[in-house]
Every structure is written in C-alpha cells, then in structure tokens.
Amino acid sequence: MARRLYAPFFAKRYAGNSETKVLHDLDNEKRECEIDRIDSRKNVSMFEWLNTALEMGYRGCSYCMPEFSAGKSNEK
Ligand SMILES: [Zn+2]
Q: 3 CA distance to ligand 1 centroid (A)?
C-alpha cells in the first residue's frame, strides 16, 4: 500500500484517524494499519508535515510509526 491520490487522502503522506488520534505514515504503511477501515468520510485528517500532527495531539501508529507511538516517545 502507499499514498492514495483520491479524496480525502490527496496524496499526502500522513493519515490521521481523528477519532482515535492515531497517525499513519502512508509511505511505510503496513497491512495492520487497516487504513481502509477508517471511515474516510468523517475520520481522516491528512498531514503533509509530521510536526503539525504531533502538535495536534496525534501519536504514531505502532506498526508504521513505532518511534512515535505511545509509550516510546518519552524513552531515551
Ligand atoms: Zn499505521
């Protein structure tokens, strides 16, 4: 899987689930991300820049963005 050109993804890199506040990196998407199970009409927010999403309270998906997932961001 990879970036999606169509709405609401518009080829941007980061897909956030606004309901769960989990962010996915579509350039590193794993099957476990289940992007297509997110209700894209209501619950997808797209970000081109990672910092923007993090500032809005998103955390990384533990499959495609483990370095930004909950519990790891405060380590080391
Ligand atoms: Zn993911």
A: 12
Ligand 1 centre and the CA of 20: distance in Å? 12
Q: Which 8-state DSSP code applies to residue 38?
A: S
Query: Residue 57: CB partners within 8 Å, gap ≥ 6?
Result: 21
Domain membership of residue 26 as a residue range: 14-68
Farthest-apart Cα atoms in the chain, separation:
38
Could you tell me the distance, in angstroms and rounded to a whole number, from the CA of residue 60 to the centre of ligand 1?
Answer: 7
Please report whether residue 40 resides in a domain: yes
pTM of the model: 0.87
For residue 76, report the distance from its CA to the centre of ligand 1, in Å.
Answer: 22
In a domain, 7, yes or no: no
Would 5 be classed as within a structural domain? Answer: no
Confirm whether 8 is domain-assigned.
no
Question: What does the pLDDT look like over 5-35, one tens digit per residue?
Answer: 999 999 999 999 999 999 999 999 999 999 9
